[in-house]
Specification:
It comes from Streptomyces malaysiense. The protein has seven helices and ten strands. By secondary structure, the chain is of the alpha/beta class. It is globular, with a radius of gyration of 18 Å. The protein starts with 14 loop residues before the first strand and ends with a strand. The relative contact order is 0.19.
């Protein structure tokens, strides 16, 4: 979730810019960023996320009500891969429904938080673009703001997810709604005026004093996302744009009740493998 010009624990102030960033650089930068910032992230957002709650984004859309993976009673016995699991809150909720989840994340430190909270399911530290599983290993896959916003080649990830899913399997993933890239990443009124081209796919990069990327986020338009999904061999069965609920008074980076009541902040793609 993009938070521009954030201070870094190592003491320097990263420079925020827009420039190209390839697969290897993006992976290296984001692994390092999440390892360094996992503690702060869990402190800041852990209460909202809970230890065993499955929310799709800052709006608070909960899988209990959304049932995007299917009715909770149908999850029992299902083998589920969570990609970009962080502290594995979603996987923990899935396990409570009787599913058999595996929680995967690029960041070793994020998975240490998963160990701290606990759970009886496997934790795997790996890149989503090279999943360490055999073909057809899972019935379902999910990713709540994990991996897809941070990779230079989303089709590589989508093809890998399709490979490890069994025929008829479902993959549901959420990302920052593409329209947000046209607006400043601010929760207040300053975040309501268009400041950039929606069609500019140049990645958002934070780099150190030597020009090395320390954080990278990639923009895809809504049409790009649909084409990526289809090109990877999935069928798109739903696109959910959660509205901001009246009960949610919290701010999360550029997400807020003010902006959430006017423009979408999250897009959730529901895909199936034929």
């Amino acid at each position: 979730m993009q938070e521009s010009e954030r201070p870094d624990p190592e003491g320097f102030e990263p420079e925020a810019t827009r420039r190209d960033s390839g697969v290897a650089e993006s992976s290296r930068a984001n692994r390092g960023w999440w390892d360094r910032n996992a503690d702060e992230y869990q402190v800041e957002h852990g209460t909202f996320l809970g230890d065993d709650r499955f929310v799709w984004g800052p709006e608070g859309l909960d899988e209990v009500e959304a049932e995007l993976l299917g009715p909770p009673e149908d999850l029992k016995g299902q083998e589920v891969l969570e990609i970009g699991a962080g502290a594995a809150q979603c996987a923990r909720w899935l396990a409570a429904q009787g599913a058999r989840p595996v929680a995967l994340d690029l960041s070793h430190r994020q998975l240490q938080h998963a160990l701290r909270i606990g759970g009886s399911f496997p934790l795997v530290c790996a890149d989503a673009g090279a999943l360490p599983f055999a073909d057809g290993s899972f019935d379902l896959a999910c990713s709540a703001y994990g991996a897809l916003p941070f990779v230079a080649d989303p089709r590589l990830v989508l093809r890998e997810v399709r490979r490890v899913l069994r025929p008829g399997g479902r993959f549901v993933f959420s990302v920052t709604h593409p329209i947000r890239w046209a607006f400043p990443d601010e929760p207040g009124p300053e975040g309501l005026s268009v400041s950039a081209s929606y069609f500019d796919r140049t990645p958002y990069v934070e780099q150190d004093e030597r020009g090395r990327a320390v954080y990278v986020e990639h923009h895809r338009t809504l049409g790009d996302r649909v084409r990526d999904i289809v090109a990877a061999g999935f069928r798109l069965v739903d696109l959910v744009e959660p509205e901001w609920p009246a009960w949610n008074s919290s701010e999360w980076g550029g997400w807020s009740p003010l902006r959430g009541g006017l423009i979408p902040g999250t897009a959730v793609f529901v895909c199936e493998r034929d």
